[in-house]
Amino acid sequence: MIPAQFDYVRAESAEEAISLIGQHGDEAKFIAGGHSLLPLMKLRLAQPTVLVDIGRLSDLSYIREDGDMIAIGAMTRHMDVENSPVLKEHAPLLAHAASHVGDPQVRHRGTIGGSIAHSDSASDLPATTLAMGATYVAQGPNGTREIAASDFFQGFLTTSLAADELLTEIRVPKMGGAGWSFQKFNRRAQDWAIVGVAAWRNGTESGVGLVNMGSVPILATGVSAAISSGASVEDAAAEAATGTDPTADLSASIEYRQHLARILTKRALTEATS
Questions:
Q1: According to DSSP H, which parts of the chain are helical?
Q2: Nearest to residue 218, comparing CAs of 192, 188, 198?
Q3: CA-CA distance, 42 to 176, in Å (whole number)?
Q4: Whole-model pTM?
Q5: Rounded to whole angstroms, how far apart are CA atoms 45 and 32?
Q6: Which of 59, 197, 212, 242 has minimal CB crowding within 10 Å?
Q7: Residue 59 DSSP label
Q8: What is the pLDDT of residues 116-155, one digit of tens each?
Q9: What is the band of 38 on the pLDDT scale with cuts at 50, 70, 90?
Q10: 227 three-state secondary structure
C-alpha cells in the first residue's frame, strides 16, 4: 500500500500543466482530487515518475450557461456540481447523479474532470454525461479540440486524450422539459455501482447511459431506438443489456448484471416518462 517513488510539481495554469507534462513525457500524470489515481498508485497498478498537480487551477472551476449548453470547468468539485442552481434548472440529471458519487468527503475533493478523464466504467458521471450527449474540451500544446462523449472512452481506464492533453471543460446540452432518472444499485451508499442507469426522455427522444456494464461507459442505443420507434417502456428496457459485456466479480455474475440493467432501465424510463 506504499506508492513507488515519484517527483511532484505544481502547475499554476493549464498552459504550465501541459508544458510540464510535455517535459516529463509519458510517465508523467496529472493529479487533481486524487481519488482515482492515488489508490492505483498505492497498489502499484500505476507508477508515474512525475505527478503534475492541477488541483489549484481555480480558473477551471466554474458552471455557466453558454447558449443551449452548460459549460462546466474540469476542476469543478462534485459538491459544486450537485448543488449548482444552473444545473438543477437546466441539467438536473447531472446534478442528481453527482450527489451519488462516493460520500461527502469524496464529493468535496473529487472533480468532474478527474472522474471523466479516469474513464472508469463503474463511475457515475462518465455514463451520465454520455447519456446526455456531452462534449469534452481538451487543451494541448497545439490548442484546444472538442471530443464527443461517444468518441472519448476507448477502453478500460483509456480515453482519446493525447498524453500531452488536459481535459479542461465538460459541455452538456440543456435538458429543456425532458424527464430524467438516475438509478444506482450498490451494497452500501458510498460503494461503486454494481449497475447504474442514467436516463432522460422527451417524447420519442431519449438517452440511456449504463454504469459498470462493460470496460467503458455504455450508451444503450438499442433502448433509445426502441423508444424512437414507439415501443413501450417495458419493451425498450428489455434491450438494455444488448451488446454489453459486463464482468463477473464478487458482487455479481454477468447474468445478474444484465438482469439489473434491464430492471433499472425500466425503472429509469418509467420515472423519466412520468
A1: 14-24, 37-42, 78-83, 85-90, 92-98, 104-109, 112-118, 124-131, 149-152, 221-228, 233-237, 254-273
A2: 198
A3: 43
A4: 0.93
A5: 18
A6: 59
A7: G
A8: 999 999 999 999 999 999 999 999 999 999 999 999 999 9
A9: confident
A10: helix
